[in-house]
Design brief:
single chain, mainly beta, 5-stranded antiparallel beta sheet, 3 helices, 37% strand
């Protein structure tokens, strides 16, 4: 009998509180309370039933026909039900939530928000969870270069490459040059573009759009910025790359390319002070 998994057990007898179940090689019976029975006709003495097995608040093995949102050995996106003095609790769709011990929280998780978690059975035989999902993510994906996806940032490499759990449980990374805004663990990112498939199966992602789309968007942001500042901005093609990343969410290369196009189209002019709109 496996805790945290679906087990096929035989119904042995009926009791005041529910039915008792037993595995083929098990000596000990476990209870499926009446409140955990979904299909009453299937739970009859001598019938085999498929049930999810877990431990209740007193550590007793309990069975249910309810389908949990996550099982042991899986990475799932789950909502934080509560933050307490002993850790956080996750809603897995059963009457008992799953604990994330403090030592297994690698970053701040907030109540009522969703994050990727790996579910496991702890030393006491209870279900538990961790935000440390890295080695448990899958590289088996149907996503192709050019596809878009959503995912959660769960960590960073030393070179600031962001590690991403693509929904529902796929491994992805975003190189530092492929994101401009500040990211942190727990951030949910939409419309990530697949730009590479690595040899190990991980997906290379970008927060940036296609080049023309990105350049058009940047030009609009520059024009909007200048129009709100009397047709002037202190930035030009010699500006500091980090300033451009903060203000315009772009690289210096893209900024210079966009300014060049705008000057060619006689929309702006530059001098040592900055850039001016041509009216």
């Amino acid at each position: 009998m496996e805790v945290g998994k679906i087990n096929k057990l035989k119904v042995t007898k009926k009791s005041e509180y529910g039915y008792f179940l037993k595995g083929e090689e098990e000596e000990k019976e476990i209870l499926i309370p009446y409140g955990n029975i979904v299909d009453e006709e299937s739970v009859q003495v001598d019938n085999d039933v498929e049930v999810f097995v877990y431990r209740d608040s007193k550590g007793r093995l309990i069975a249910t026909q309810k389908t949990p949102k996550a099982m042991a050995g899986e990475v799932k996106i789950l909502k934080v039900a509560d933050n307490t003095e002993i850790g956080s609790f996750l809603d897995i769709g059963l009457e008992r939530d799953v604990l994330v011990p403090f030592r297994e929280k690698k970053y701040l998780i907030l109540e009522d928000e969703k994050y990727p978690f790996y579910i496991y059975v702890d030393k006491s035989g209870r279900l538990a969870a961790t935000t440390d999902v890295d080695i448990h993510l899958s590289t088996d994906s149907d996503l192709k270069i050019g596809d878009t996806c959503n995912g959660y940032v769960y960590g960073f490499q030393t070179n600031k490459t962001a590690l991403v759990c693509i929904e529902p449980n796929i491994a992805g990374i975003i190189l530092r040059d492929e994101y401009y805004k500040t990211l942190k663990e727990g951030d949910y990112l939409k419309d990530l573009r697949v730009i590479k498939i690595y040899e190990d199966g991980k997906l290379g992602l970008s927060t940036r759009g296609e080049r023309k789309e990105e350049m058009d968007s940047l030009e609009n942001r520059i024009l909007s910025y200048m129009e709100g500042n009397d047709g002037f901005m202190r930035f030009n093609d010699k500006s500091d790359p980090e300033d451009l990343r903060i203000v315009f969410n772009t690289s210096k290369k893209n900024f210079k390319r966009t300014l060049g196009t705008m000057m060619k189209n006689k929309k702006i002019r530059q001098d040592e002070e900055g850039t001016w709109l041509i009216k």
